[in-house]
């Protein structure tokens, strides 16, 4: 008699801890919403993953080889969309996880995109501008067959910026023989970028803070806010909230943080940071560590730096009422559940930091139409879309008792599942 021996499926290269964490979120909400098992399985892995070699001639004449990645998680709702990052920790698992989160984010926001992500494993702070340009252009040439305004539209991410996007656009345009501004978003205004794009992610975080404060029913006229990460996202959110009457009591950067229980003067702090390169030592404030900053008593905590900052090790020490995730993945699944059980509202990253991809969508549309909007129009459209998504997530949370992260996933994955069902399986 022949006995069938079960064969364990081999581990895929993308199955790093970060990717498996994202998969666990999908598995949890799939069970809760009764997602069709076959659809569930199709959503667990990326549609395509590209790994490329990026040889670069360095300034000293030598040639150094880097590894680049571009992952498309899903393109059911439209072309792939996602950032490109330069960082030594870039790997297939990280970009696969972030591409998956981009899929959920775009579906939640109602944008006609699927999720993508890419990057190059390097130490960008050790590269000259000329070396970064050569690396970017070679990387673009290597992935050129899977990007394009109707295929995959990259954007800036960690250690990339509008200059990086200009190099990608130029390289792509040279190869196809004409200018294609809509191949990337986050470009300089002078070559087709959108007004309001630079501030979009931080502005979206600020919108979510205001909606969350209303949802929780905080009575304070000047809610206290702590911001971890005073970069592009955190500093803009802090400034906008400061202008709206919120009290920003602490902020931090990679070197440490500063605290004043009566509130920091954010415009002066931004000027100080521009001059000194760090927030530590700012007048009328106390220096403190990033670890101490997370545990300060406050109404709103905005983790806008790196991932995995709020974990099972420190979740019980948080003294905030609301967490609004400006960064990608700053809260571990265990911490997210703990905070929900202890009545701390967590506005998840796929909602809170979706302002960037939303205005990227505006930029893409403007480029395709060759018709550009004013900054006020962009900000009004952003507030409308962010507000609608916040209302949907909070309404779902109120009705079902799900924590907001699961509500957001249920909405986004539900939309994607419906689209996949309607389109069917080819062939």
Tell me what you see in this structure.
The chain has helices at 17-33, 37-43, 92-109, 129-143, 162-176, 200-216, 232-243, 266-276, 290-294, 333-341, 349-352, 355-369, 375-400, 404-423, and strands spanning 48-57, 63-72, 80-86, 114-121, 152-156, 224-228, 247-253, 256-259, 286-288, 300-303, 322-324, 345-347. It is of the alpha/beta class. The protein has a seven-stranded mixed sheet with strand order 9-8-7-6-10-11-12. The protein is globular. Helices cover 45% and strands 16% of the residues. Among the domains are: 36-178, Leucine Dehydrogenase, chain A, domain 1 (Rossmann fold, 3-Layer(aba) Sandwich), CATH 3.40.50; 200-352, 3-Layer(aba) Sandwich (Rossmann fold). The longest helix has 26 residues, at 375-400. The two termini are 37 Å apart. Helix 4 packs across helix 5 and helix 6 packs across helix 12. The protein contains 14 helices and twelve strands. The model is unreliable at 1-7 (pLDDT under 50).
Would you spell out the secondary-structure blueprint of this structure?
Layout: H1 17-33, H2 37-43, E1 48-57, E2 63-72, E3 80-86, H3 92-109, E4 114-121, H4 129-143, E5 152-156, H5 162-176, H6 200-216, E6 224-228, H7 232-243, E7 247-253, E8 256-259, H8 266-276, E9 286-288, H9 290-294, E10 300-303, E11 322-324, H10 333-341, E12 345-347, H11 349-352, H12 355-369, H13 375-400, H14 404-423
Parallel strand pairs: 3-4, 3-5, 6-7, 6-10, 10-11, 11-12
Antiparallel strand pairs: 1-2, 2-4, 7-8, 8-9
How much strand?
Answer: 15-25%
Quickly give the structural class.
alpha/beta
Question: Looking at CATH, which topology of the domain at 200-352 would you report?
Answer: Rossmann fold
Instruction: Give the mean pLDDT.
Output: 93
Annotation, overall tally of beta strands: 12
Extract low-pLDDT stretches: 1-7
- Assign the CATH class of the domain at 200-352: Alpha Beta
State the end-to-end CA separation: 37 Å
CATH-assigned homologous superfamily of the domain at 200-352? NAD(P)-binding Rossmann-like Domain
* Relative helix content: 40-55%
Quick one: overall form? globular
Q: Which CATH architecture of the domain at 200-352 is right?
A: 3-Layer(aba) Sandwich
What series of H and E elements makes up the topology? HHEEEHEHEHHEHEEHEHEEHEHHHH
Count of alpha/pi helices? 14
Question: Main beta sheet: strand number and arrangement?
Answer: 7 strands, mixed
Radius of gyration: 22 Å
Instruction: Please state how the strands of the largest beta sheet are arranged side by side.
Output: 9-8-7-6-10-11-12
